[in-house]
């Protein structure tokens, strides 16, 4: 019978070993791997050759902590499976990595306590900044992070507290435009398909649409059949379209809700979109442009959101700037009559 022996763990190569092999001082190795530091071309060549031979890598985390900068940026996301959130993470992580940041994505799906635990974890890792994509963390917890010297960036959340950097899209104007869009298409019975999530962005879209309808002398029905999901949109369609006063124009506060709503409207109620029913979404996720949906929606400027996050993290001053409010853009397709 043979016995397997585990290979001994190989120790990481130290800067001292590189210095010994290169025949230079320890400080010369440090200067070689420090941007802007003074080191002669000959010394740099010796150090790089020795580092290559030994397989040496700079411990950026340790070096950063000495200067109170870890280089880590945490992203807190509650719904990674949601197309809009996954798009935000994909674009933002790519741009943060391009400026040399290490991105830690914390998935807080499930219990609300998971969001609190994730935020506390960012303090343990001494993250340079935390980007909160989820709308769930309580204000008190955000204040705790700020009090501990952490830069907090909130996406689509405008809390009345001092300290966080805020990046918003103009949810109110978009929702009001959605109402006018449906009204111009001849829709007089209106409805909103929302969710029970209660996040600031969703609540603003829902309330702004209802207010705009009231200004036109119309009443907008509201459906909140569950969390922000395809299934909730489908159930919203069953509730609204099965009623005696069926709406003619519907605003779904996210595209994912709209996709579920449209499928049930066409497949279960046999309604033609947009001839019998007009539908407007919000986000402009990739699926909205699929030929099976052709959803008219409001595009969130994900690239601009990511660029602004990068700009916040790169700036030297710690004082937060006023909230950045970005406009949405209508993506005209075929779910609303001309």
From TrEMBL:
Residue ranges of region Disordered?
A: 319-338
Q: Tell me the ranges covered by the HTH lacI-type domain, including all copies.
A: 18-67
Coiled coil spans: none
Give UniProt keywords alphabetically: DNA-binding, Repressor, Transcription, Transcription regulation
Q: Which Pfam families match?
A: LacI, Peripla_BP_3
Does the keyword field hold Transcription regulation?
Answer: yes
What Gene Ontology terms describe what this protein does at the molecular function level? DNA-binding transcription factor activity; transcription cis-regulatory region binding
Gene3D superfamilies per the record? 3.40.50.2300, lambda repressor-like DNA-binding domains
Transmembrane ranges? none
Q: Which PANTHER family match?
A: LACI-RELATED TRANSCRIPTIONAL REPRESSOR, RIBOSE OPERON REPRESSOR
Q: What is this protein called?
A: LacI family transcriptional regulator
């Amino acid at each position: 019978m043979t016995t397997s022996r585990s290979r001994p763990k190989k120790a990481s190569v130290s800067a001292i070993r590189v210095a010994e092999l290169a025949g230079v001082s320890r400080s010369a190795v440090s200067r070689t791997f420090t941007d802007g530091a003074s080191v002669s071309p000959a010394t740099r060549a010796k150090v790089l050759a020795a580092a290559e031979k030994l397989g040496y890598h700079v411990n950026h985390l340790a070096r950063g902590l000495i200067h109170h900068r870890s280089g880590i940026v945490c992203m807190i996301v509650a719904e990674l499976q949601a197309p809009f959130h996954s798009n935000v993470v994909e674009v933002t992580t790519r741009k943060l990595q391009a400026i040399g940041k290490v991105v830690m994505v914390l998935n807080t799906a499930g219990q609300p306590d998971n969001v609190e635990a994730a935020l506390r974890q960012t303090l343990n890792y001494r993250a340079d900044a935390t980007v909160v994509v989820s709308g769930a963390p309580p204000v008190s917890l955000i204040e705790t992070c700020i009090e501990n010297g952490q830069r907090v960036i909130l996406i689509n959340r405008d809390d009345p507290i001092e300290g966080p950097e805020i990046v918003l899209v103009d949810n109110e104007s978009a929702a009001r435009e959605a109402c006018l869009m449906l009204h111009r298409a001849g829709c007089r019975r209106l409805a909103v398909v929302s969710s029970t999530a209660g996040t600031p962005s969703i609540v603003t879209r829902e309330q702004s649409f209802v207010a705009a309808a009231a200004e036109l002398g119309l009443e907008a029905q509201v459906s909140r059949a569950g969390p922000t999901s395809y299934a909730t949109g489908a159930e919203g369609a069953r509730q609204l379209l099965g009623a005696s006063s069926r709406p003619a124009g519907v605003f779904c506060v996210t595209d994912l809700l709209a996709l579920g709503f449209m499928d049930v409207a066409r497949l279960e109620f046999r309604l033609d979109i947009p001839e019998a029913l007009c539908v407007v979404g919000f986000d402009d996720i990739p699926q909205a442009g699929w030929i099976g949906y052709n959803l008219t929606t409001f595009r969130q400027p994900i690239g601009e959101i990511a660029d602004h996050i990068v700009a916040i993290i790169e700036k030297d001053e710690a004082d937060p700037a006023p909230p950045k409010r970005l406009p949405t853009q209508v993506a005209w397709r075929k779910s609303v009559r001309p």
